[in-house]
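Handout, section 4.2: multi-component inputs.
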Amino acid sequence: MIEVLNFGLAALILGLAVWTIVAREAPAAVVGFIVYGLLLTLVWLQLHGIDVALTEAAIGGGLTGVLLISAAVRLRSTETTARAQRSSASTRWLAAALSAAVTGALAICVLALPEPAPTLAPQVLANIAVTEVGNPITAVLLAFRAMDTLLEAIVLLFALIGVWSLAPDRAWGGRPGPLQQADPNGMLDYVARVLPPIGIVAGIYIFWIGADHPGGKFQGATILAAMWLLVMMAGLADAPPISRRWLRWLLVAGPLAFIAVGVLGAITAGAFLSYPLGHAKTLILVIEFALMPTLTLVLGLMLLGAPLRGEAP
Amino acid sequence: MKLLLELWTIVAVIAGAFFFFAGTVGLLRFPDSLTRLHALSKADNLGLGLVVLGLLPQVDSVSAGLKIVGIWLLVLLSGATAAQWIARTLRQSGPDS
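Output:
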């Protein structure tokens, strides 16, 4: 029975992927992509990758979806011009052949994996006790492969700088996103007042539970960022000007704390980002707590886009 | 007692699945956006509600049960908001297909 379900899921995802590519209208393709992300979440659940499923739902489906929707809305006026400049048949066939070749090569690689696939999971489980966290994913992300997580956090910061660099000169240092008028009788206003308390608790819960169960700072920060965006969309609070000192400090606080812990490890435990025995959990918590506000701000500000207005509200 | 609870799960989940099915048929077959919205919100509210009620006897702990009821309430809130919002946008921009 479950095989039938899995097969149906796989067929649906493949069909949706093809549909997303061939869809003519950008909004339709974006909706296809969001549903694709949600179905991918179900696949990760079926593979027992609950941490990945949570991330896919929050970032792959939710956050990327919102980014793509706003991109599609912005590009709406150029859609007819873009369609008029259709590339020639040979170019399109070349692109299709190239994509098919990449897909084929990937498929061959995956199918050629030895059975069972090579894995480091037993080593992780054998050594997880020294990290004092119960969730192996968190142990990998913040102890065994902490360097990857550090670079990931820094890359997000660079991405935000990239978004900001699109600002026109006169708006540099100003507030990102359009100015929203609050509508006291509106539906959005109501939700923006009711939902954030629940969302903030849920976000912090998912962040905290990440030590021992599926969850963690990325998923929690996405929920917090969503609540922040909701309040700003409803016009209940305005986006902060990007020139504010406190904002800049919070944005670099997470990576800086991470690097400081790494240097501490180099002095006390002999290697960058290694934790002295017995203090692993404490240091992991320090990193997580420092990264949480940074990630929330980066994800929220990335969705708001480049500053377009002056400092005045 | 256990058999009764299992039976309750089966009946409620099937009833919930029926509402999702009916909502999907409505989404595909109804003539305009407002009626389609109506079909969709019924599936969300009643369908998911029945599935959650059906799964309640199967949870291990009280907190797990409270969590899935909480999820249902959140979906109710977001579904109602989104439907209201889409409907208002439709009314302002004029009915389409």
